[in-house]
Amino acid sequence: MNLKDVKKLIKLVEDANITALSIEEDGKKIEVKKDSIHASAPSYLAPQPAPVMTAPVAAAPLAETPQAAPASVEPVNDSNLVAIKSPMVGTFYASSSPETPVYVKEGSSVKEGDVVCMVEAMKLFNEIESEVLGTIEKILVENASPVEYGQDLYLVRLS
């Protein structure tokens, strides 16, 4: 099952009057769940009182804790650059295993359907494919780092 099939399953669950869908194919299981609180909220809920506004209070400075810096990308004003984004929350992997070479490097050529990385979500490894023809201009994520839905993974210069 490829990324396009997974996207179709997610769209099906979003549009249908169901809260979950589970499919098993070739020994791989995919489960899509919709937040049931929003899916079937009763219409007879009493209105909540408006929040009380108070004067702002200066907060004590927080102790700095080491955290991973969020991926920062300088705005690109180049119309030939497009981003390959993460279609899900998970962990980014540049190769299928530590012993194998990375799928792509900066300067690698990619075409539609080429696997560029994997995102592991809930112990399921999902191959992320390029949807464009071009050259990897910049890798924006470190190997084995967490990624968010819609986060830019690569910048690709279109061919």
**Widest sheet: strand order?**
3-10-8-5
Structural class: mainly beta
Q: Give the proportion of residues in helices.
A: 10-25%
Low-confidence stretches: 37-44, 62-75
Order of helices and strands: HEEHEEEEEEEE
CATH homology superfamily name of the largest domain: RNA polymerase II/Efflux pump adaptor protein, barrel-sandwich hybrid domain
| CA(first)-CA(last) distance | 28 Å
The tally of beta strands, per DSSP, is 10
Structure description:
The protein is mainly β and 159 residues long. The protein has helices at 3-15, 36-39, and strands spanning 20-25, 28-33, 81-85, 90-93, 109-110, 115-121, 124-129, 134-139, 146-147, 152-158. Mean pLDDT is 77; it is low at 37-44 and 62-75. The longest helix has 13 residues, at 3-15. A 4-stranded antiparallel sheet has the order 3-10-8-5, with no helix packed on it. It has 2 domains: 3-37, no CATH class; 81-158, RNA polymerase II/Efflux pump adaptor protein, barrel-sandwich hybrid domain (OB fold (Dihydrolipoamide Acetyltransferase, E2P)).
What's the structural blueprint in terms of helices and strands?
Layout: H1 3-15, E1 20-25, E2 28-33, H2 36-39, E3 81-85, E4 90-93, E5 109-110, E6 115-121, E7 124-129, E8 134-139, E9 146-147, E10 152-158
Antiparallel strand pairs: 1-2, 3-10, 4-6, 4-9, 5-8, 6-7, 8-10
Quick structural overview:
This protein is mainly β and 159 residues long. The chain is built from two helices and ten strands; from the N terminus they run αββαββββββββ. It has helices at residues 3-15, 36-39; strands at 20-25, 28-33, 81-85, 90-93, 109-110, 115-121, 124-129, 134-139, 146-147, 152-158.
